[in-house]
Amino acid sequence: MSATTPTEPAEAAVPRRTLRDMSRAALESANRYWQPIVKTMRFGARGAPVSMGALVLLWVLALVTGSVWRQSEYVVRHFAVGIVPFEHWRIWTPLSAGLWAPTLFGYLGATVLIFFVAAPIERKIGSTRFAIAAVSTQILGALLGLGLAVAAKLFDESWGFRLHVGTALGPTTWIVGVAMVASSRMDTLWRRRIRVGLIALLLTLFLFGGHLQDVIRLAAAFVGLVLGPWIVGRSSRGKVTTGTRREGRVLVAIIVAASALGPALAALSPNAIGPFAVLRELFRGIAYTTEEVRDICDATPGSLDCRRGELELRLGGVGPTILSLMPSLFLLVVSDGLRRGRRFAWFAAVAGQVLLLAMSLLNYVNRFVGADESDWVFYDFESATAYRTIVPFLTPLAVLVVLVATRRFFDVRAPRGTYTRLAAVMAALTAGLAAIYVLGGLAARNAFDHTPTLSGLLADFPERLIPPVYLQWLDPRFLPDGAVATFLYEWTGVAFWLVASVLVLGTFLVPAYGAETDATGRARELLRRSGGTALSWMTTWRGNRYWFAADGASFVAYRVVGGVAITTGDPVGPRDRLRDNVVAFAEFASSSGWSLCYYSVSVELKEIADDLGWGAIQVAEETVLDLTKLAFTGKRFQDVRTSINRAKKSGVEAEWTTFHTAPIEIRDQIVAISEEWVADKGMPEMGFTLGGLDEVDDVEVRCLIAVDADRHVHGVTSWLPVYRDGVVVGWTLDFMRRRSDGFRPTMEFLIASAALLLKDEGAEFVSLSGAPLAKVGDAASQDALPAPDALTGALDRLLEVLGAALEPVYGFRSLLAFKSKFQPDYVPMYMVFADPAALPSIGNAIGRAYLPEVSLGQGMKLVRTIIDR
């Protein structure tokens, strides 16, 4: 007994300790989950007395008036804003309406918005300006919204009457208003995104929900847009509209997504009254039972009541409702493809809008042409006004116009064969679902109101894939009258759309490196095996086409602009085959009817061109750092060492990443910095041999970012690999962006850090790339060159003038001077051409290659810049 007694407590203590450990681990896990949220809320509360005061007042008033759990009639009567309260001289309601919320969910939502939207804005613009913005947008937004509500009666008596008797409560009015006010001082990217996204959301609520609160919120947003520059001033970036292609894709995707969500939002809102709320009939109907429909149709076959019952039976139930929402889900998937710039997504979106237009027209013809008011089955409003009649046409038509106007943004193609495989899988999916539907229908033939045949089930299957509202002009062959039949009848289409959406989304996730991705993949493999110049990775960029040598060991990347074939650097392949490849590609270009220009090529290729009797002009200067001898010592590198020391004191560190794998908060900051830089130029990004974010988003391109302790990105550089015999021996600087209000010597710090880090990794050199239309003036070397002919000399002088004219806009010469801080070796880069008579067209082609999307206004701005010089 004495021997066992001491052991019993020890054995019993083991599970207790384990339980304590498990509890402690659970608490630690919960703490890790909630800590960021609590930290964010604490951070939101600091420095925002007006926001926090408004939040406290909101809940105090809610508790005092008892409007937390249910809407208080007293609050609505005395403090909600509306036309009727104003008619009874309750003129304080435009302000008081922002101090209550209609429901508990309204209070909870307002609390979240105050913590995560209002409070950060107050810290950003200051409490005084925040208070002015909140009060002014609340009052003026309410007054403007009431004016719009009065005007609504002029063109829609039904909607106008509902607005007239309606009231509005909620702090979202002033929260939206201050967000729009604050956007005036935001950086370019977020100013554009917040304005487009918020207005798209508010317009969707206005057009589809249509309640007085929706009208007032939208009015407050426009008031904030107008008052913003007066209250907080304009951004230091000024009024800019220029954006990158990447950002244009995002904005178009937002518009398409809003157009898809609007009708669904109206369908899910039981009291939607907006001018576009008629589109909710695309999603929902009144549930009829099969027995009710059968009795009606047996008694009066072909009658309107029978017809109505059949159509509503199709729309009733969970399955038909979800099936009606599937096109919206598919358009959301397509929106993600548009965000990624996928060409297929653009075609799919266009096809979807055209189909919606066609269906709307067919519905219109079926409902209204030759029909009297008693035949209108779905438009269950008091009156079918003109705008309600044309509403189904307006949304897809407007989106279609936007898509056509921005079609140039969507040029990213998936690898060859992607959509062939998709078509095969979709065909198999359709065949499989058809087999399941037909065989299941035959097995459950007694579960339909009419016994279906094999041919009848086959003919009916395509209709199961179509949202039921678009079948209203077709009489159903049979209707389900049992669980199995109902499942097959209602859910076959849902399964089809869900799988199709997942498959299409998968094609958007497939990496796409270039316009001809199969050829790009082949070019990448050759580049890794044989290597090339420091700029050879640019041959893999989108927009290039490829010529492959007969032996398959070499290639030339080129693009054809205005009948001129312009190469991207030297031919890639064995260097002992360089001359053969130069001549072979020249013959290929000539046989295709193109003039030839080898652009940004090496001295070695220029020497081959001299032997062939071709002309050459220096167009850039490459700067190279030999890492084997690199040491930032001595007076010459004082600025470089200073940047490194200042970064250390400021807590700024250099960190390697890739854009593809970086956390989303890092990627967003990189995008914001890039958009800000483009906006400052007032001109689109240059392409060709100058990469942007699309080129940075490559798994083999490394990014070195400057980040501080708070994970704020101060600058970013991208580095392209340089291969030799399958091994990376060097890296080439491409993308350079710095936050305007960040750590000032960011670029010096990043380039110096990259050189030191890459040296430690064993790289032989880094190229700081070339600066177009800029070169080191070396009189001795210029005297050594043969005298150019008149046309070549004229083009050389033109490039010199153009480089000087573009300096205020793009700063190529300043960039070259900046790189001189690192004491690089200078390597000239040339443009080589076979026919001097083609120089005018070559010059035009190069300009269009660098600026393919310059608008007329931007071109005029560039001309004015040149003239002002």
From TrEMBL:
Signal peptide: none annotated. GO terms for molecular function: aminoacyltransferase activity. It is found in: Cell membrane. Pfam families: LPG_synthase_C. One of its GO terms (biological process) is phospholipid homeostasis. The chain crosses the membrane at residues 48-69, 99-118, 130-155, 161-182, 194-212, 218-236, 248-268, 313-332, 344-365, 385-410, 422-444, 494-514. It is a multi-pass membrane protein. It comes from the Bacteria. Keywords: Cell membrane, Membrane, Transmembrane, Transmembrane helix. This is DUF2156 domain-containing protein.
